[in-house]
Amino acid sequence: MTHEQLFQIIQKKRSFLCIGLDTDIQKIPAHLLSTDDPVFEFNKAIIDATHDFTVAYKPNIAFYESQGPKGWESLGKTVDHIRNTTKDIFIIADAKRGDIGNTSAMYAKTFFDTYDFDAITVAPYMGKDSVSPFLAFEEKWSIVLALTSNQGATDFQFLEDKASGKKLFEKVLTTASGWSSKDQIMFVVGATKTESLTDIRKIVPDHFLLVPGVGAQGGSLQEVARFGMNEQCGLLVNSSRGIIYASKAHDFAEIASQKADEIRKEMEVYLKQNNLI
Amino acid sequence: MTHEQLFQIIQKKRSFLCIGLDTDIQKIPAHLLSTDDPVFEFNKAIIDATHDFTVAYKPNIAFYESQGPKGWESLGKTVDHIRNTTKDIFIIADAKRGDIGNTSAMYAKTFFDTYDFDAITVAPYMGKDSVSPFLAFEEKWSIVLALTSNQGATDFQFLEDKASGKKLFEKVLTTASGWSSKDQIMFVVGATKTESLTDIRKIVPDHFLLVPGVGAQGGSLQEVARFGMNEQCGLLVNSSRGIIYASKAHDFAEIASQKADEIRKEMEVYLKQNNLI
Asked: What whole-number distance in Å separates Cα of residue B30 and Cα of residue B56?
């Protein structure tokens, strides 16, 4: 998918929501546990109920991996179900991978070939050749960690480079945006760090940002839209727990649908304010 | 496993070798491809032939993940086979994981609970709370990326912090060594960066270093031992392709055994020179 196509889906759905499928078998409704594949049944119900309101799904791979081989089957079925349900969707493997070249090539094969993802999140620490193998797949995206939403972000990401005066996360934005075009590179910027969004937009005015941290982690959608939106929206704002675990009863999918549509409606306001729809 | 126990295995085996099980189905001998689980059959033969010469095995998870659910079955069987073959062994999941706390907890569960690894490699970019969930498992290790063996290491790892004058990888060593004791934290330092080992030993004199890059990537074992060895050895030197793919014929395991013993013999010399055996 290209940058332009992603923007068209945003305009069509009047939404820049990404739903995080962080499906934890400990947290899904009890009545699903007797099915053959509770994780997939949960995801299927969530997808069927929310796909009109979201432009992206983002399974966090940790939750699937922790279930062993069965978890990877649930993941594969989930990706296939999304593809069979709608064409207007962007699917992100939240995997935060990155290794030396021949190994990253294996990861790229996993997520772009074995599984049909559009994008993968990658850690920048090992530099260009740890990300290049992902970029070798046309119309597939690498979403590079820049400024993350967690407390530990302050350990290294704000370290100030003596030579350039830039902070580490700013160096990552500057350097990694040169690794390919805005059709293949996106950045993770936490919603808990909105005070940095203005500066980030000076460095990467045109790139999409994947913004986690709205909801359970306390970030504000309004501020993200105010400081982060660009002429092609340029934002995918993720919510996981606030949607998929909004109810743990039989009505979980219906409540998830309501929550997703609530967020979408707020997003529609910001898209209109910026004359994007 | 404790730091002391790992050193005892090194003394007993007169080796500080780690064999990387980067098992690529495209590269294993043709006669194994007709078996039910070629990846496991390859690993089993390598393990049976080399376990006397190595103190650690390090499956790189990318290679298993790329095979889908079946790859994870091969991985589980591989770990079980190592455990059933020898007690004197340290098993590393080369996974380079790291995410926000609740997600890293899932990864920790995967590698320390679902699979019986002793250690996992982790990326430091997201800071302390992305590593803490791994450290919550007693006698399990986090091996933090510090200075990697690839070309892209120069993109960010040498950035010089204005406040402290330290390079990023030195900040990682200083900061992460405070996250737990030397019984739970180890660092990745590439064998292609031996000129930095003297400085690294000033920052972390007592910690184990996992050193990839000898062999296919061009690093020198002699230099690693010269500049990196401490009073309890403090080194695990990895070789992957140079051992497991030394032959692609029927004799692959026998040749792997010879290659591993060759390296072990060289290691024995360095251990003796340092009066550690």
From this structure: 27
3-state secondary structure of A143: strand
DSSP label at residue A239: E
Nearest Cα to Cα of residue A153 among B122, B101, B169:
B101
Joined together, the tokens standing for residue A272 give 């209109």
Whether residue A155 and residue B127 make contact (CB cut-off 8 A), yes or no, is yes
Report ipTM (2 d.p.). Answer: 0.95
8 Å CB contact between B219 and B192: yes
Q: How far is the C-alpha of A122 from the C-alpha of A173, rounded, in Å?
A: 13
Contact A160 B155 (CB under 8 A): no
Q: Å from A234 to nearest chain B CA?
A: 23
pLDDT score of A124: 97
Measured between CB atoms, which of B22, B97, B161 is closest to A96?
Answer: B97
Positions of B annotated as catalytic residues are 96
Active site residue A171: no
Identify all chain A residues contacting B175, using CB atoms and an 8 Å cutoff.
155-156
Does the beta-carbon distance from B109 to A163 stay under 8 Å? no
Whether A74 and A43 have beta carbons less than 8 Å apart is answered as yes
**How does strand A119-122 pair with strand A235-239?**
unpaired
At A113, the amino acid letter reads D
Q: Nearest residue on chain B to A113, judged by CA atoms?
A: B66
- State both tokens at B200: 């690294």
What's the pLDDT tens digit per position in A148-203?
Answer: 989 999 999 999 999 999 999 999 999 999 999 999 999 999 988 788 999 999 99
What pTM, to 2 d.p., does this model score?
Answer: 0.96
Nearest of B212, B215, B251, B234 to residue B96 by alpha carbon: B212
Q: Are the Cβ atoms of B66 and A100 closer than 8 angstroms?
A: no
Helix/strand/coil percent split, chain B, to 5: 45, 20, 35
Scanning A150-251, the segments in alpha helix (DSSP H) are: 153-156, 168-176, 197-203, 221-228, 241-244
| CA-based nearest residue in chain A for residue B60 | A103
Which residues, listed in sequence order, are joined to residue A92 by a DSSP beta bridge? A119
User: Strand (E) positions, chain B?
Assistant: 17-21, 56-59, 90-97, 119-122, 141-147, 185-189, 209-211, 235-239
Token duo for residue B218: 């061009």
Question: Cα torsion for A191, A193, A194, A199, to the nearest 10°?
Answer: -130
